Amino acid sequence: MNKNYKGKILGITLLIAVLVGGFAMYYINTHTAKTVTVYKETVENKIKSTGLICAPQTLIRAENDGIALYNCREGKLILPYAKIATVYTGEISDESREKLRAVNDKIVFAEANEKQGKNIVGDVTSINRDINNAVHEIITETNVNNFENVYKLKNEIIAYNKKLMELKGVKVEIKEENLNDEINKIEAGLTGGKKEYRSPVNGMFSTKITPWDELVTPESIMTLSVKDYKNLLKEDEVEAHSVKSGKPFCKIINNYEWYIVSSFPVSDIEDLEVDEWVEIRVTTNSDRKVDGIIKYISEASGKEACVVIKSTKHLDNIWTSGKVEFELIKNTKTGFKLPQSALIERDGKKGVYAVKDSLYKFIEVEPLIYDGDYVIIKDKTLDGESQRSCIILYDYVVINPEKVREGDFAS
Q1: Strand partners, 277
Q2: Structure letter (DSSP) for residue 201
Q3: pLDDT tens-digit profile of 372-392?
C-alpha cells in the first residue's frame, strides 16, 4: 500500500513537471524575442514578362513553290552575294528529297569543319588537351541547355581529330567536290527546275521564320499600342516544311542590334524613362544579363503600357524564336536583407528593434526594395552615420518586434 502511494506521488510529480516544462517552452516560444543576424545582399529590382523580339533583317522570299535546301548552317555570318539556298520546283519524290537533304547537309557540315581545321595549330599533346577541354565544355553547356554552343564544340572536336590524324601521318580529305557530284546526279533525275538564292546583304543567316517577322519590326514597334501588342502575342509559331511563292523562307539578320517589346503594369514602369539604361535577361536562352536602353514607352491603356528595349549585345540563339521569356532589370540594390516581419512603424518612421549594448533599441531604417517576404534596407554607415545609431553587418535584429519594448534587456 505504501509502495502504491509513493508510486502515485511520483507519477503526479512527473506529470506536473511535464506540464510546467511544456508551459515554460510555450511561454518562451510565444513571449521571447526571435532574432536574425544581419547580412548584406544584392537584389535585382526586376519585372518578369513575355515579349516579342525583332532585329533589322532582310527576308528572302521564294519566287515559286518548292523544296528548299540551305547552303549555310544556322547562325553563320555571311557576306553579300554568298550562296544561301537552292529551291527545287516541280514534283520531287520523297526518296530524291531525302537524298538531296542528306548530301546537302554533308556539304554544309564539311565546309564548317574544313574552315575550322585550317585555323588549328599545335602538336599532338596540345591538341589532345584541347579535345579534352572541349569535351568538358560540352558537358557544362549540355547541363545548362546551351545547345548552340554544344553544336559548335562538336564541330571543333571533329576538326581537332582531323588535325590530329594529319599530324600522325594519316591523310584525311573532305571531298566536297564528290558531294557536289552526288548533288548533280540527283538533280539530273528531277523533272522540275531549280533556283539558287544569294544573300543581298551581309549578316547572320537563319531559317527560323516566325509569324512576327513581317509584323514586328524595329520601325513598327515604336508606335505599338497595348491592344495591338496583345493581338500580336496571340500568333503561334509554325515551322514551315515547304516554300511558298512570295513568302519568306529564310532571312539575313543584322546581328549588331535587336529589340524586345512587351507590355507591363504601369505601376511597375512609372519610374522608367526613354533613353534610360537597364539590363535584360532573356531566360528562354540563358541566365546572362546584357545592357539595354529604353527606346519607347506607349500611352497607358487601362493599367498597362508597352515598352521597347534595344540592345547591341550578342546573345547566342537570340534569333531562333520570335516570342521569349525575359526579365527587365531596372536596377540592383545592395543592403541588409531582413524579413519584412522585422519592420515596424513608430511616430511615422519605419524601423526595427536591434540588440545594441545588450538592450533592445529602435533603429530607424530606409527600405530600398521589397523582395517577397524580405526587405533590403540601406547601409547608412555609407553616409557616415554612427554604427551605434544604425544597423550594421552582423547585428541581431528582432523579427517578432511585438514581443519586445525599447530598453528591454536582450536575453
Answers
A1: 293
A2: S
A3: 899 999 999 888 888 888 999
Whether residue 64 contacts residue 86, with contact meaning beta carbons closer than 8 Å, is answered with: no
Q: DSSP class of residue 300?
A: P
Write down the domain spans for the chain.
32-43+335-403, 47-54+214-331, 93-189
Q: Is the dihedral of CA 361, 367, 369, 370 positive or negative?
A: positive
Beta-bridge mates of residue 68? 87
How many Å apart are CA 190 and CA 23, to the nearest integer?
92
Residue with cell 524586345: 260
CA distance 112 to 29: 68
Q: Grid coordinates representing 364?
A: 530607424
Q: How far apart are CA 329 and CA 337, in angstroms?
A: 19
Beta-strand relationship, 277-282 and 349-356: unpaired
Domain 47-54+214-331 is classified in which CATH homologous superfamily?
A: Efflux pump adaptor protein, beta barrel domain (2.40.30.170)
Q: What is the pLDDT of residue 118?
A: 43
One-character DSSP codes across 13-65:
HHHHHHHHHHHHHHHHHHHS--EEE-EEEEEEEEEEEEEEEE--EEEEEBSSS
* 56 in Cβ contact with 258 (< 8 Å): no
